[in-house]
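Before surveying the methods themselves, let us examine one representative protein, written as a sequence plus integers encoding its fold.
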Amino acid sequence: MVSCSERVRMAVAEHTRKILTLREKETALVRVDLEHLEDLHLRAMTVDNGKHEFDIDEPQERGGTDLAPAPLPFFLAGASSCFLMQCVKLAIVNQLALNDVKMSAIGRFDRRRGGGFEEIIYELRITGSEPREKVVEMVREAEKMCYASNTLKHSVKMRVRLWYNNEQLPLG
């Protein structure tokens, strides 16, 4: 089973049930405030659910001081962590016997002015004792539940690759 406390299991079950049963549009808001510290060093602060801070910088070869990751890794981390979070929540809610749940996010982008991401690939690596079909179903449902992926797939080619017990499975 995916490791979590009973408190987390209950909260995830309630929240997931709510999301899966929503029929009318319910708008939510997420906000991050940013400030320039010095050079190319920025600080971001979350203001919606809890107060958290994280720094953003550029590597030295691009003029930064390399005190923190650059913006694009945060972009990929944010989008991919949203997707992986949905996988973990569904594994918890459905009490799936999964051991390791890991993911890499790979973004291919055009560096020219006016360019952007051309493709984002999520590579999931999961091990466990569930039937393959249940894992594929979980990943497909996570795709539908991930706000970041839903936003991106309308504007950039998005692909998900699933490895379950070291075997790549088709998602269709």
Remarks:
- Strands lie at 32-38, 41-46, 53-56, 98-109, 117-128, 157-164, 167-169.
